[in-house]
Each structure stands twice: as C-alpha cells, then as structure tokens.
Amino acid sequence: MSTSRIAFNMANYSFLTIMCLLALFPFLNVLALSLSNKTAAAAGLVKLWPVDFTLSSYQFVFLRHEFFTALGITLERVLLGTALSMLISVLAAYPLSKEERAFPGRTLYAWAFVFTILFNGGLIPWYMTIKMTGILDSIWALVLPGAVQVFNCLLLLNFFRGLPKALEEAAFVDGASHWTTLGRIFVPLSAPVLATVTLFTVVGHWNSWFDGIVLMNSPSHYPLQSYLQTVVVKMNTSTFANIDPVQAKLLGEISDRTVKAAQIFMATLPVLCVYPFLQKYFMSGIVLGSVKE
Asked: Where in the chain is the domain with CATH 1.10.3720.10?
C-alpha cells in the first residue's frame, strides 16, 4: 500500500477506536457505579472502575419483584411482537416484490405503505384507536399498534426482488404454490435480511417505554423500560418503599444511584447478548435489502 493509504487507514482506525471508546465509557461508568459502595457513589468518586466493590445493589434488585414483573412483561412483548411483526412483514413483502403484471396494483399498494412513513396520524388518534379496540391496559396494546414495520417490509421487499427469478419459475414449473415458494425458497435464502429485521424489531420492542406509560393504566403492567423510566427519570421514591426485612438490611450498603445503575445494566445486558449472534448478518442484510434499481 502507498504511504497515503497507510496514513488514511491509521487515521480511520484511530477515529473509529475513539468513537467506540466514547460509546463504551457511559456503559462502563454505569457498571462501575452499580458495583460501588454508596459512599463512593454519592461522593462522585466512581469513574470507570468500582470503588469499594460490592454486589449489594444487585442483591437488592434481585429481591424486587416489581423489576422482574416488568422484565417478564417485556419478554412477553418481545416474543409476541417480534413473531407477529416478522410474520406480517414477510407476508406483506412477498406479494409487493412481484412485478406489476403478476400483481396488478402492486405499485399503488407499495406507495400506500410508504405514505405511512411520511405522514403520521398523530398521538391522540393513535391513542383513541387503541382505546376503541378494547385492548388498552393489555399486552396487545404494546404489540398490535406497531406490528407493521414498514421500513422492515421495504428491506424484505427489495431483498426478495433481488433473488433470481429462475428459482421461483422452477418452483412453479414443479407445481409449487406461492406458499410453498415463500416457505421453502424465499425465507431460507433470506437469512441475512431476516436476521437484520429481527434485530431491529427486538431492540425496538425492548427499548420502547413511552407506549407502556401511555397505554397501561397500572404501573404493575409496565414493561421494563417504562418501569425504569419512572424509577430513574422521575426519581420515583417507591424504590425503597414497602421493603421486607432482608431488603432493609441491604439499605445500609446501597443508595438510590447504585440501585438505579444496577437496574439499568441488567436491562441492557440481554440486548448486548443478542447482538453478537446477529452482528455477522447485520451489514449484509442492510446492503442486500437496500433499494435496487
């Protein structure tokens, strides 16, 4: 490589390394804070390494049934929401990937999907629609309104359009139906883009907090991120209310800040565990599912 190319690579890698560290520092600070003594946390002595290491905050969180109730609701939401969204996205993208002669009106339907990205009905009509359907304060209020992810449909649509037409034609010659073609040809060949879309959907459901607060009438029905929002952002004093004797013994070793940090880290950890398994598909899925001429 030329000298200029080497210099460019060094500058590029240095910049990316710095950006990676900047993104990692807040996470390490939260982890260190959750593992530190309450005195060090209150004094602001905790940076990237725990001070007076202790697991008391995690012990306290593990004894909080509210946290695990919210975690269970979020897991149910992720499983139901991801499965439903993926099913609808695949079923919508397959017919929209056909040519106009095979699916008359295909362009009109595709633009109807795109229209929903450009224009939103608004918060009040959204809430009133959910309320009138009778699913308010239930898990379906968290799953059904966002079941159709148009961006994901577009990624799948363009990926399906890029698959060789000969495969589909050969399947039809052998007597395969559209359902068989979709299930045995399109879906197996679409692993990269399906993994990418699944990752988008899982992270979206896991991180969503606003709809939980708006659509749930009782805090006991909050998903995890909505629960953390009430505890961390609104500084909810109920964190230390109604505690049992075992939790009371831990209060001498923890503080509000360390408990919040422990809950934030535990809520972030599952997503961090999912990313490595889907990361290898991420870039290829985005590129292969991007718009093609």
From this structure: 60-249+256-288
